[in-house]
Amino acid sequence: MVDKNSPLPLYYQLEEQIKKTIETEELQPGDALPSERELSESYQISRMTVRQAITNLVNKGYLFREKGKGTFVSSQKFEQNLQGLTSFTEDMKARNLVPGSKLLHFEIYPADKDIRATLSLKDEELIYKIKRLRLANNEPIAVETSYLPVSLVPGLTPDILASSLYTYIENELELTIGHASQTVEAAIVDAEDQQHLHINKGVPVLLIQRETFLENGTPLELVRSSYRADRYKFKIDIERK
Ligand code: 16G
């Protein structure tokens, strides 16, 4: 029940109650939440208040809406260790999820100044710009934009990009990927990426920028990826020196 005399807003109280039913596993991932009407009747609060609580829980990732079907409890967030230099395909397989890729953009063009500098390229050297939506069990997880020199990774095609880029680089081209330097920050994506990721306007994502090098130090890839912050969290083990 909610306490109408409490200084805490009613929507917040309802939010906390729903959260509790999820945390105690009374409601499990995939379970449907009672309808707005049912919740408003059983808690004796307005539908507007119920809607506000649900919207907040959707934005925080506890619930998700399916058009015409209702609101459901989300799965736990994916936890990704930041220590290893892994590919998306490897990350998903390690969790027994089926990795997926949808190619959104594929282009070969002369690198512009910034990217040329990052990838240590000569003037006008050709690069790939590849934008892919990455999926786990068909659920959109991240939008990834990669830049790679064509001379280093020849023969890349949309077909190859439907599966694993790293498998192609390592198994077909027999290159050895060495190390990467990576930053993570919060960001808001544009309307197009919001749609790809199925997130609401204004919901933050985790923006990862990674520069990856071959074992011999040659720059291989610059990538900017927006991961759904409501579905993903990063973990790092640290030691006191
Ligand atoms: C990861 C990498 C990305 C790489 C991709 C290859 C980050 C931020 N990005 O998503 O740089 O291109 O893996 O994945 O970690 P694939 O082998 O499954 O195509």
Question: Strands, helices and their partners?
Answer:
Layout: H1 10-23, H2 36-43, H3 47-59, E1 63-66, E2 70-73, E3 78-81, H4 88-94, E4 99-110, H5 113-118, E5 126-136, E6 139-149, H6 158-161, H7 165-172, E7 177-188, H8 191-197, E8 204-214, E9 219-228, E10 232-235
Helix pairs in contact: 1-3, 2-3
The protein binds 2-acetamido-2-deoxy-6-O-phosphono-alpha-D-glucopyranose.
InterPro entries: Bact_HTH_transcr_reg (IPR050679), Chorismate_lyase_/UTRA_dom_sf (IPR028978), Tscrpt_reg_HTH_GntR (IPR000524), UTRA (IPR011663), WH-like_DNA-bd_sf (IPR036388), WH_DNA-bd_sf (IPR036390)
Domain HTH gntR-type: 8-76
Protein name: GntR family transcriptional regulator
Kindly describe this structure.
The protein is of the alpha+beta class and 241 residues long. It folds into 2 domains: 10-73, Winged helix-like DNA-binding domain superfamily/Winged helix DNA-binding domain (Arc Repressor Mutant, subunit A, Orthogonal Bundle); 78-235, Chorismate lyase-like (Chorismate lyase), CATH 3.40.1410. It has helices at 10-23, 36-43, 47-59, 88-94, 113-118, 158-161, 165-172, 191-197, and strands spanning 63-66, 70-73, 78-81, 99-110, 126-136, 139-149, 177-188, 204-214, 219-228, 232-235. The strands form 3 sheets. A 6-stranded antiparallel beta sheet has the order 4-5-6-9-8-7. Strands 1-2 form a two-stranded antiparallel ribbon. A two-stranded parallel ribbon has the order 3-10. Helix 1 (10-23) packs across helix 3 and helix 2 (36-43) crosses helix 3. The longest helix is centred in the first third of the chain and has 14 residues, at 10-23. The radius of gyration is 22 Å and the shape is elongated. The N and C termini lie far apart (49 Å). The mean pLDDT is 93. The chain binds 2-acetamido-2-deoxy-6-O-phosphono-alpha-D-glucopyranose. Residues 87-89, 144, 146, 164-167, 208, 210, 221, 223, 225 line the site of 2-acetamido-2-deoxy-6-O-phosphono-alpha-D-glucopyranose. 2-acetamido-2-deoxy-6-O-phosphono-alpha-D-glucopyranose is lined by residues 87-89, 144, 146, 164-167, 208, 210, 221, 223, 225. It comes from Metabacillus halosaccharovorans. InterPro entries: Bact_HTH_transcr_reg, Chorismate_lyase_/UTRA_dom_sf, Tscrpt_reg_HTH_GntR, UTRA, WH-like_DNA-bd_sf, WH_DNA-bd_sf.
